[in-house]
Write a structure and sequence with these properties.
CATH topology: Arginase, Chain A
Radius of gyration: 18 Å
Strand content: 5-15%
Pathway: Nitrogen metabolism; urea cycle; L-ornithine and urea from L-arginine: step 1/1
Oligomer: single chain
Largest sheet: 8 strands, parallel
EC number: 3.5.3.1
Keywords: Arginine metabolism, Hydrolase, Manganese, Metal-binding
Number of helices: 11
InterPro entries: Arginase (IPR014033), Ureohydrolase (IPR006035), Ureohydrolase_dom_sf (IPR023696)
Helix content: 25-40%
Bound molecules: manganese (II) ion
Number of domains: 1
Family: Belongs to the arginase family.
Distance between the termini: 32 Å
Amino acid sequence: MNAERGTRNAEFALEQPHSAGAPSTLIPRSAFPVPTSGNWLRGARIAPIAVPMGLGVCEFGPEIGPYALDAGLRDRTAATPSGWPGAGRLEPLTITDVPPSLPSPLYGDPRLKNREPILTACKRLARYTQAAIADGRLALALGGDHALSIGSIAGAAATCERLGILWIDTHADLNTPETTPSGNIHGMPMALALGHGNRALATIAGAAPKVRPEDVTMIGLRDLDAGEEAFLARHPVRVYRMAQIDALGGFAATVARAIDELAASGVDAVHLSFDLDVLDPSCFTATSTPVPGGLIVREALAGLRLLRESTLPIRSVDWVELNPLLDTRGASTGVAVRLLKGLLGDD
Ligand SMILES: [Mn+2]
């Protein structure tokens, strides 16, 4: 499906003046009233947006992730449908058209691998995210690698005055072209959201930065590069590393604290970015960068339930870094779907 050939609606006209066409049928306007407050994890329509992209990690596999997640949410791959109550709020899948990568080593600047196709895909995702939120629907970006957050955060930031970000991840993703050990852009989206790094990527859908450092909370960090440690030493991002999570009484207790802090911060919308590599390799193996010492399924589920039950104004979610090619028996995909169902509806 090629989203660019689709027709468009008014929101798209604001964001894409170079593309003429008729209204989009990919994100049909909802007949439901637009909720203007509250937590959209509960009750709001859900707009799943596939981002079939592995360009940010330079691997094959992540581009299949969105289809595995969407099929799981809809019980298409289950022998016995679960009857998950959130299914009734799921809208049709929107698919972000991701350009192909150039073959290595022609992917461009080795410190910003695949920048051009990632920039194009993230501009599209930003439009879809903005349109979904403007229409009162939870924008659910299904990855795909974590570079997609460049687009989803840009789209979310365009819909509010002051965005808060809850970043649940093993990594801080705070690298810039100057600090990156790999050149992989999936290690950069949080730095870009804060206005650091490649200017074209940082200014999708409007000026940089998208978020203030004091409005960012990171939970689960346990594998940081030297440049990221230096970044955190200079910027007031709230960080809960795994060691601190244990000291605070676990993941759920830490999430509860982060919810209170974000609620008191004055942000008027919250973006949740969940990198599945935060899970422990004993229960989730199908990711490009597994690191021992992660969350187990039960505690992750408990924390995600707290987010669903909170009063945070959560409008958009990233669910990233599932690589089904590494999931020979489907167990990791099952975990990724189960946690997402827990976040979005009773289970
Ligand atoms: Mn990440």
